[in-house]
Automatic annotation (TrEMBL):
UniProt name for this protein: Adenosylmethionine-8-amino-7-oxononanoate aminotransferase
PANTHER family hit by this protein: ADENOSYLMETHIONINE-8-AMINO-7-OXONONANOATE AMINOTRANSFERASE
Organism in which the protein naturally occurs: Dietzia lutea
Pfam families: Aminotran_3
GO BP terms: biotin biosynthetic process
Subunit structure: Homodimer.
Catalytic activity: (8S)-8-amino-7-oxononanoate + S-adenosyl-L-methionine = S-adenosyl-4-methylsulfanyl-2-oxobutanoate + (7R,8S)-7,8-diammoniononanoate
Keyword Transferase: yes
Amino acid sequence: MWHPYGGFPASTEPLPVVSARGTRLQLADGRELVDGMSSWWAAIHGYRHPHLDAAAHRQIDTMSHVMFGGLTHEPAVELAARLARLAPGALNKVFLADSGSVSVEVAAKMAIQFQRSLGRPERTRLATWRGGYHGDTLAPMSVCDPQGGMHAMWRGVVAEQVFAPAPPAHYDAAYVAELERVIREHADELAGIIVEPVVQGAGGMRFHHPDHLRDLRRLADETGALLIFDEIATGFGRTGELWAADHAGVAPDVMCVGKALTGGYLTLAATLTTDRVAEVISAGEAGGLAHGPTFMGNPLACAVACASLDLVEAGEWREQVARIEAGLRRGLAPARELPGVVDVRVLGAIGVVQLDRPVEMTTTTSAITSHGVWLRPFRDLVYTMPPLISTDEEIDLICAAAVAGAAAAGAGR
């Protein structure tokens, strides 16, 4: 079995899970772990949620899948309508995809086809800032950080994109000037500008000032590039707003969503765009968007996604995220005093402890699981993105485990 980002033999032994409920993972050896990762940030409502379970059962008794080419069905129609209603701005056109990475591929195609349809075929590149992560397929890899990211080995294979420096945590006029210089210098070749708004996820779990999104909106308007927000990790309340873009009051031309879209039950993503972008692409040489995943609009996934949106629209996540944020700030604060810790940061239901060197996975993970918690450190980070249903006691336990993991990672320096 080949596990993600690993080789043979595996550097760490994977833990067999036999069941999951609420926030808890039951292991084959009888141990129970609180999942502080929401299964890579997707299971925001926890496991075996009765409302999502019921939706899955109802749909599988009707049809689990039907092709979306030439056919349609109510779960997809309902999901698209609800996403369009919830999205910022006027993102009224919804293209359903298989995964977050594919939704970014679709966004890149949208931007390039949009420019071609306007008679600007030379505009094929994407601009972004360093420190980002957008997925593991070729177009998303091309806009991941080209030096510090996990995709540096693909330089010369993926398309060469345009990179500005990584965005600072605080608003900085000098940074804005440099960002503007980079984008204007390449304006004539840019199809779009793509970023993760407010939170850069797997590129390093960094936070930046929301006002930088307003600068990007202005620059996109002035240069004719499409503004693309990758909300795959940040959407559905994770940062304390429904969309990270809401922190800035900015709407993009294209938005990618995934991960928590189905509450972690099934793989599904979507790329949303405006009427104008859809109309321009449809009037172009291809006559439409040149993409069509086999499992696009999968009825089972769409039905569960609609059930997940029921919970999101009920609005309890606002209180949950605010409470989790307070717990993470309180519980992770002791890590600031540990050897090797260079930063502790919290935003919404995201808590990060950063060290001065990469963690040793076996020792660090063992320290974390000994506290009855599951976290998956990477690079120089011990971090958590817990399910939004986590109790105060579970957040305290997650924080204690994260601090213990950071202590183990920093031991012997």
